[in-house]
Design a protein that fits this description.
This protein is mostly helical. It is built from twelve helices and five strands. The chain starts with a helix and ends in a 10-residue tail after the last helix.
Amino acid sequence: MTRAGRWLLGVVVVMAVAAPWLAPNPPDRSFADALYAPPTPVHVIDAGLRRPFIYERRLMSRLERRFEENVSRPIQLQWFTAGRLVTVPEAAGGPLLLLGADAFGRDIFSRLVYGARTSLALAVLATLAALVVGALIGGIAGYAGGRVDDLLSRLTEFVLVLPAMYVALALRAAMPLVLSPAAVFGLLLVIFALLGWPIVARGVRAIVASEREREYVAAGHALGAGPWRMLARHLLPSTVGYLAVQATLLLPAFVLAEATLSFVGLGFPDPVPTWGTMLQDAANVSLLGRAPWMLAPAAAIFVVVLGVNLVVQGRGRAPVQLEP
């Protein structure tokens, strides 16, 4: 189970890193005659033996969005061209649309792999920020005890009782709706970290409070070690296992949170390819029966959540929660 989960997550990460090489087309390129176009079938063998090829596709009806293949004109795929693994330029009879096209004629597969970069980068950085802030606050509370512990614990509990998704929506809605992609990235990073750190702090506080009563801590004090040294060198390292588990819980939760915010129009603007903005494009339910490939980002999110669940369950841990 653990190995399968790692393979799934590894494939997603590799595709995100290699997006400029794997994407057959630019993610923001619109093809006027490919609105809601279905995935391009890739053929290997016909009457003669050829390299993998596609047939030229014709738009037969703009109203019905009906396409037909011109079997009299096979077009071979172009490998390792223009810095891409495989592509078919429009001038040569393309485009190559491995997962079809969206409402603007943009390549869904290209947007999917590019969107993985933004969605996963935001989730990873938010997870790291939540772990650092939570570990620091929880460590101070557990080590100091007394009034400091009471104050930080009450603050942690106050944030924990808030409905995370509604708070995220409220915080984002309170900001200007029109922001640059970089500003949206930074804003969502801060919001996710603020909502995620209390979960980490509560567990770290319990571990540190238990560890501070052990003999090696008393020995460190006797040798003149200060509180920050004890925390950084001895107490916080004892929470590494707990932090690793929390990271596997927070990562998919933040992926879902970004998708939710972008889906309701409070995340990244539409031109930016993320899994959330792609799901917003797929919100036209009347077309999903005719264009199911629009749900590709939902499948990608499912793969990430499934992969993390397999990793966690393989270690005998609780399954991933789907709320941040």
